[in-house]
Task: structure prediction
Amino acid sequence: MRRHLSIVVLPPVLVFYLAAGAAGLYRYIDNYWLYRGFGPPRDPAFVQKRGTTQQISVTSAALGGRTQQVYVYLPPGYADHPNRRYPVFYLLHGFPGHPQGAFLWTNQIGVDEDVLVTEHRVHPAILVMPSGSTSFFADDEWANGIRPGQGWETFVARDVVHAIDTHYRTIPSGRGRALGGLSAGGYGALNIGLHHPGEFGVLESWSGYVLADHVKSVFDDDAQLMRRNSPLLTLPAAAPALRRAGTFVWLYIGNHDHLTGVNRQFDAGLRRARIRHRFDVYKGGHDWALWRAQTPHALIVASDHLATHG
Result:
């Protein structure tokens, strides 16, 4: 017996509303993916001068000749003051992550700088956001891994810094550089900063960890390599050079974050080592709500401890 396929013809007006609803759902999901539930970044009306975003490419021998994208946010007024030099805040994204999505879209750090500069609460600074992995879902830990071409720490501390100092009007010394990041980027900021004392005058960890994660693709099963990339364990040896350089460390964590305990241990280590620092515990977890809320504070802390004239 043959079966007849019944075809239901929807009224045009219903088709229109269904299509509009599907498009609205897509926009909602797309916006949530881009901005993590926050509105798109937009300067308030009182901001008259805005910063500008540029994208550059940095080729790194430490990455086996690989070229990585780096986002640069030039502060309001940069083009108007051709003889002025600026401090630089290097920012490392977490995993999985991308610099534009993490800092410019979700944390809206460019908008925050525009507002804070307008309100005279921070000195203008160049914000630099490198891409720290081979793909969105690749976990490279901002560390020099066990295999050739995995020199992510060297990529940041040598190649990106050199490229920025070459192409922009920076204060080309540690007293004019901050290095910070969120989650895995916070770990990377502390790890790189302790390995290169004096290169960055300010280190910031936003919900970062202080013991190397056992990421087999980065560290394999090399216990010595993991120890060398664990800031909690390398701090005592790095402390004298950090003190001489006058390095300032700011770390914060959410009170519901599973990393709160090890962050408290690192705070205690900084106190024993007599390193200038501040440790804050805020209400919240390991999430975008906390990082978004504290982004203006992160800019203020960096501004308060960086040189403003070359």
